[in-house]
Specification:
This protein is an all-alpha fold and 295 residues long. It is built from 12 helices and 2 strands.
């Protein structure tokens, strides 16, 4: 196989584009688990729903992509807040398997709802005209829209870090993962804080689905695949760790990109081998904390 610099760089950037989508999907799941302690099996359905909402928002016109993504994020925030208050809050005191059953049932409901509203057929949307043509990097063509995906994920990571580290609400969110009772004793409105965290996580998942639509088709079945990918990322990076989600997404994106190049028939196996290796060596993830340190 003749490997030149341009080809290798193209594969690396393709892996980054995949990682950007995985990060937007998984970081919301990690946020929700860190603050609420809930394993949200419905997370992938909001990712899938975000793609359909973008398709609906732009009415098939790719030039409306940017405003459509804003609408998708806003709808995701609203839906997340409603779901947390109406469905999740009553089951917080109940055993964990009740929460798992509820979120899995929600995944099925959203999937059937999408089929009812949009049909079961695949939906697709091209990138805006300004990004429809490839750019040339090191003598090799590369989709311009992939660069937008990468930059958007990087921007979200930086903004999320600044929010968690530099704002009062971010301080509360970090504190709630350590000692919720103490936070309540200090007069912090913990119920509203939990609603905000869940809504933010769902908005990020919906945004990830919307950002992905211009480069691949979507169907209602994408919800299950998305939640599996999200769990793989957070297992590798560490459940509850924002930077762990970024690292896990990067590793999996690059493994997929170069695995397809080296051994396409078994490229997906490399991802599961990575997950198995991490679980054997660090069951709490590469950047996660052991359970004893989270209590």
């Amino acid at each position: 196989m003749n490997l030149d610099l341009g080809f290798l760089l193209q594969q690396f950037l393709t892996g980054l584009a995949t990682a950007s989508t995985l990060f937007l999907l998984a970081v919301g799941l990690s946020l929700i688990f860190g603050a609420l302690g809930i394993v949200n099996f419905a997370h992938g359905s909001f990712y899938m729903l975000g793609a359909y909402l973008l398709y609906w928002a732009v009415r098939g016109n790719p030039e409306g992509l940017w405003w459509g993504l804003v609408e998708v994020a806003a709808i995701g925030l609203t839906l997340g807040a409603l779901v947390e208050r109406a469905l999740l809050r009553p089951v917080y005191p109940r055993p964990e398997h009740h929460q798992i059953l509820l979120t899995y049932a929600l995944l099925l409901v959203i999937e059937d709802g999408v089929k009812l509203l949009f049909g079961a057929a695949y939906k697709s949307l091209g990138p805006p005209q300004a990004l429809a043509h490839p750019v040339w990097i090191a003598g090799a063509p590369f989709p311009a829209y992939y660069l937008v995906q990468i930059l958007l994920a990087a921007l979200v990571a930086v903004l999320l870090w600044l929010f968690l580290k530099r704002t009062r609400m971010g301080l509360w969110i970090r504190a709630i993962t350590q000692d919720r009772a103490m936070l309540e004793a200090l007069g912090v409105p913990v119920p509203r804080l939990l609603t905000a965290v869940f809504a933010l996580g769902i908005a990020l998942a919906a945004l990830g689905g919307g950002v992905t639509l211009p480069m691949q088709t979507v169907s209602p079945g994408a919800a299950v695949e998305a939640v599996i990918n999200a769990f793989i990322v957070v297992v590798v990076g560490g459940l509850g760790s924002i930077w762990g989600s970024l690292l896990g997404a990067f590793l999996i994106g690059e493994i997929q990109a170069f695995g397809v190049m080296l051994w396409p028939e078994f490229s997906i196996a490399f991802v599961y081998l990575l997950m198995a290796g991490v679980l054997l060596i660090r069951p709490w993830g590469l950047l996660g904390r052991p359970p004893a340190l989270r209590t």
